[in-house]
Amino acid sequence: MSGILNSSIGRKFAMALSAFFLMFFLLQHFAINILSVFSPDTFNEASHFMGTFWPVQYILQPILIFGVIFHFVMGFILELKNRSARKVSYAKNNGAANSSWMSRNMIWSGLAILAFVGLHFYDFWFPEINTKFIDGDWSGLHNGEFRYFEELQHKFHSHVRTILYVIAFIFLALHLLHGFNSAFQSVGANNKYTKGLNGFGKAYAILIPLGFIFIAVYHHLNHVLS
Amino acid sequence: MNMNLTLKIWRQKNASDKGKMVDYKVSDISPDMSFLEMLDVLNEQLVNKDESPVAFDHDCREGICGMCSLYINGEAHGPDRGITTCQLHMRMFKDGDTITIEPFRATAFPVIKDLIVDRSSFDRIQHAGGFISVNTSGNTIDANAIPVNKEDADTAFEAATCIGCGACVATCKNSSAMLFVGAKVSQFALLPQGQVEATDRVLNMVKQMDDEGFGNCTNTGACEIECPKGISLENIARMNSEYLKASLKG
Amino acid sequence: MALDSKIPKGPIADKWTNYKNHIDLVNPANKRNIDVIVVGTGLAGGSAAATLAELGYNVKAFCFQDSPRRAHSIAAQGGINAAKNYQGDGDSTYRLFYDTVKGGDYRSREANVYRLAEVSANIIDQCVAQGVPFAREYGGLLDNRSFGGVLVSRTFYAAGQTGQQLLLGAYSAMNRQIGRGKIKMYNRHEMLDVVIVDGKARGIITRNLITGEIERHSAHAVVLGTGGYGNVFFLSTNAMGSNVTAAWKAHKRGAYFANPCYTQIHPTCIPVSGDHQSKLTLMSESLRNDGRIWVPKHMKDVEAIKAGTLKPKDLAEDDRDYYLERRYPAFGNLVPRDVASRAAKERCDAGYGVNATGEAVFLDFASAIQRYGKEQAHVKGLDENDAALVKSLGQDVVKNKYGNLFQMYEKIVDQDPYNTPMMIYPAVHYTMGGVWVDYNLMTTVPGLYCIGEANFSDHGANRLGASALMQGLADGYFVLPYTIGDYLSNDIRTGPISTETKEFEAAEKEVREKLDFFVTNEGKHSVDYFHKRLGKIMWNKVGMSRNVKGLTEAISEIKELREQFWKDVKVPGTNEEYNEELAKAGRVADFLELGELFAKDALNREESCGGHFREDSVELDGEQKGEALRDDENFAYVAAWEYKGEPSDAILHKEELEFKDIELKQRSYK
Lengths: 226, 250, 670
What we know:
B: Ubiquitin-like (UB roll), Fumarate Reductase Iron-sulfur Protein, Chain B, domain 2, 8 helices, 7 strands, C: 14% strand
C-alpha cells in the first residue's frame, strides 16, 4: 500500500475518490438548496441543522475542505506532470477528432470552478464562519427569525453575481460531463455491468448544475419582479 | 484522378538537432497508393536530386508489425480509423491538399531522425513483467488441461491484438501509455495461466511505465479511437482495478 | 567437402529420442561461460534466444527492427499445425509427417520432418502455458481449422493473426530473459558478416542502424534465424526490410545454400494495382475454407466484368468456372498452394483474368454466407427462406471468422467483399530454400546454425499452410537447444572469444570498405531502381512457371544488372547516420547475387516439383495430364551450392534424399 500516491494509477484513484466525495456533497448541497424554492421554512430548518450539528461542523466540514483542496492540488500536480510528458508539441493536432472538448479541458473548467468556489466562500462561507466562530453567535437567528433564507435571497439581488453563478454552473456541468464517468473508469469500473452508468452520469452532470442555475435564477427573478 | 499535394514534414537530422517543418511538393499521386508509397515517391525524388530522403519507420506494410507511425494532419496514423499508416490510402485525400506529417511526440519517445522515434520504452515495460514465467522446455501440461471460458479467451485475445505502435501515446494529450500497458496486463489477467504472477506483474509494469516518463491517463478516450486495433478502454479500467487489488495485497 | 546430414541411426520414430539420450550435455555452471549470438528475433530466433538464455547461456540477440516483437513472423495469419488430434479425425504424428513430406513434393529430409511432427504437439502446450490466446470453443477447449493439402483439422489459430500471437509469446519469453540480464538485446542492428576463426563461426560484424557504428561481437556459436529471401522478387508479401544478407554472408563464408529455386507463390494475395506498389498483401489461406475460387466460363462475361457492365455477383452459377473444384474434386478449393497458384495462372494466361491487368481471379463468399446464414436461422428458429435475414446472419458468421482480413481487403481495394467477390492473384510468399543444415541444424560452417525459414530444411519443394510457424518454433524451442549443446560441450574450456584478432579486423575492414564504396559512388540510379528491375526479371523468368530459355536469359540479365548496379548505384548521405538507402543498398547487392544463383538452380533442376514448375516437365497424358511431373530418378536430391566467387562459379553438392518410410508417389489432389 505504501507509496501508492507516488504511482500514476494511485493518483488517478485518489482523484476519483475525492471526486466521488465531492459529487456526493454536491447532491446533498443541491437537495437542501432546492428546498429554498419550495419552502423557505424547511430550508431554514435544514440549514440550521447543517450549520450547528457538531458532527457536520467538526468532522464533515473539515473533510470536505480537505477534499476540495486535495482534488485541486492533485489536479494541478497531474496537469504539470502530464505536460512534461510531451515537451515538444505538435504543429498540428486535431484533438476534436478523437475526444470531447470537456475531456481535454478539465483543467480550465476546474480552474473556473475554483474561482467560483472562492466567490462562493466569500459570499456565504466566510460570513458564516465569522458569525459562528468570531462573533460566537450559534443561534442562526436575525431579528428573531432564521436568517438563512433571507441571506440567500439577498445574495441574488445582484445581476453580476447571478450571471457569474450561472456561468460557473455551466463550467461545473462541463467538468462533470467528463468527470463523472472518468471517476468510475479510474477506479476500474468499466465493463459490461457498468454500461448503464454512462447515461446516469450524463444526466447527473446536466441536471444538478441545471438545478443550481434554476435556484439562482429563481431567487434573482423573485427579487427583480417583486 | 491523380493528385498534386503539398507536404509539410518534420525534418530533424538526429536526436540532438533542433528540427523544423519543411515543405515539399509531390505530383501525380494515385488514389490507390498507400500513404507510405506516396512517401516512397517523395524519397525517390529527393534521392534523384541528391537530397536526403525523409526517414520514417515501416516494415510489414500490412498493418500488423506496428513499426510505422506518423502523426498525419493532427492524428496518429492519419484520418482513417482502425488502420495503421501503411494501410492509409491516398483516396482519403483530395487534389491540392496540404498534409502535415510529424513524428509521434512524447518525452518517452525521443526522435531519432525525421519521423523516426525511439519506442524502446515500450520494450522496457514488457521486460518488467510482460510475460508468464514458464520455462520453454515444452514439459508443461496438455494445452487442453485448463479450459478457458470462451468469453474470457476472446477478451484476452482482443487485448493481445495490440501491435505496440504507440499511437495511444502519440494521441493522448498526456502522452500516457496506459492503453498499451492496460492491454498487456489485461491479456494475462483474464487467463488462468496469468493469475500466479498477477500482483507482481501489474505493480512492476506500472512502475516501469511511470519511470519512463509517460503521462497519466485522464480518460479522454482518444487512444481507443485512434488505436489501429481498436483496443478498448476497458483494458485501462481492468489494469486500474488490478493495480489497486495488487497494492492492497502488496 | 562431402555433405553429411548426420541423421541418427534407427527407426524413424525413435531417432530423435535416441539422439537426445546420447548427445553430450553442458553442465549449468559451464553454460554461464558460453556465449551464443542469435541473429533475427522472429519465431525461430526469438524462441531460440529465449530458450538458450533460460538454459543458462549468455545470449546476444540482434534484430534490424526497433523491437524484437516486429519480426515478420508477426504477419502470419492463418495458424499453426500440430498433431494433437483434438478433433479425433484421425490425425497423428505419422500423418502430419506424411502430409508434410507429400505436400513438399518429396523433396524434404524424412528424419527432420518426422522430428518436426513429433515436437509439434509440445508447441501448443508451450504456447498456451505462455498465455497465447488461441481461439477456443464454447466448452473452453481449443478450436481447430483446416488448411490446404490435408484431410484433417489440425490447425490452431488466433483469429487472422496467429503469427503475431505466437511471436508475442516468444517475445514475452525473451522479455523474461532480458529482464534477468541473460539476453542482451541489440535492436536496430544489422548483421553484415560472420567471422570465422580457426574454421569455426566465432562472431559477427554488425552495423548500428541509428549511428552507423560498426561493431564486433564474439561468441562460441552463431545462430541465424533471419527469415526468407522472397524480396529478391521486389514485390512479395514479405516485409520491406526482409532480406537475405545474413544468410548470404554466411554462404560467402562457407555455408552451402540449398535449393534456392524453391519459392512458394501464395495463391490468395491482393492483385497488383500499379507501378507504385511497394509490397503485396496476403489474404490468409484460411479463406479457402469458405471462399470458392472462380472465373467466368465465357470470354464475353470476362470482358463485361472488366468493362464494368456486369457485376460479378450477377453472373449465373452455370456461367462460372469453379476451376479448382472442377480440376481437383477431392481437395477442391483446398489444394496445396503451388497447385492453386498454377491453376490461377493457367486461367489468367488463357485470358480469363477478371481485373484490368488480367491477373486476378475471384474468391467468393456468397455461398458460405448463404450456408452459414441458413444454419444460424435454423439454430435460432427463424425463417430460413427470408433471403435478407439469411444474408445478414451469414455475414455475421463470416465477419466473426475473417473480419480483420475483410477489413484489410476493403481498405486496400476499396470494395466490400461481403457484397462482391474478392479479387486475388498469386504472389511470392515464402522461400523453402535456404542455408543448408544437417540434422543438428548446423550449416557447413562449424558453430554456425541456421533455423526457421532461413534454412532449407523441412518443407521440401512446397510448404503446407500453417507449417512455417510450426517449424520456426520447433527449431527454436525444442530442437536447436539440444543440438547446439552437443556442439558447445567442446567449448567449456575455451573461455571468452576475443574480438581483437586478425579475423575480426579483416571482416570489419571488408564491411567498412563496402559501405564506403556505396556512399562515395557517384551513381545515377537509386537502390530501388535496381531492386525493381531485378524483381521484374525474377517474376517474369524465374516465377511461377519456368523454362530453359527464360532461365538462361535471366542468368545473364541479372549478371548484367549486377554489374550496372556496382557502377551506377547512388546512395545519399553518409555511413555515420541513420541511412536507410545505405542499408537497402547492401541488401540489394546480395539479392543481385542470390537472384542469379536462384535462376541457376532452377535451370539445373530439370523437373517440376512443388513450387518449382518447369514447363518442360509435365504429365503428357492420362488423368494427370498437364500436371507437374517430378523426376525422382534424377532429382531426388538437395542441391547445395558452394560459393566460389561469382554465382556462375558456384559448385553443386548433392545430398541424396532417401525415402524409407514414405513411398514416393505422384502427388494427386484429384
